[in-house]
Design brief:
Helix content is 0%, strand content 49%. The protein is mostly beta strands. It has a single domain, classed as SH3 type barrels. The protein binds zinc ion (ZN). Zinc ion (ZN) binds at residues 72, 74-75, 77, 79, 94, 96-97, 99.
């Protein structure tokens, strides 16, 4: 998967389109990511004991990788990434500025 934990991404689809955030979790098996503070869903928590109040918490829902674009840490543009091999390691690189993204 081309997006990893810690990356900054731009949302290109859905209600948070145009917003950016940091990937807090990558789900490679599902091709999805969870972005900090974005794509929140409200969940109502029922009181468990009498006297306790129910509350609403906001939980970030995962976003399909196809709906986000990586923000390059070098040129700060939303970009596509490719792969480069160097010292037997595979690195991602920005297709706009060619900078390596480690
Ligand atoms: Zn770049």
């Amino acid at each position: 998967m081309k997006i990893k934990k810690g990356d900054t991404v731009l949302i290109i689809k859905g209600k948070d389109r145009g917003r950016t955030g940091k990937v807090i979790k990558a789900l490679p098996k599902e091709n999805r990511v969870i972005v900090e503070g974005l794509n929140l869903v409200r969940k109502h928590i029922k009181p468990r004991t009498q006297g306790e109040k129910g509350k609403i918490v906001e939980i970030p829902r995962s976003i399909a990788v196809a709906n986000v674009k990586l923000i390059c840490p070098h040129c700060r543009k939303a970009t596509r990434v490719g792969y480069k091999f160097e010292d037997q390691d595979k690195y991602r690189y920005c297709k706009k500025c060619q900078g390596l993204i480690k």
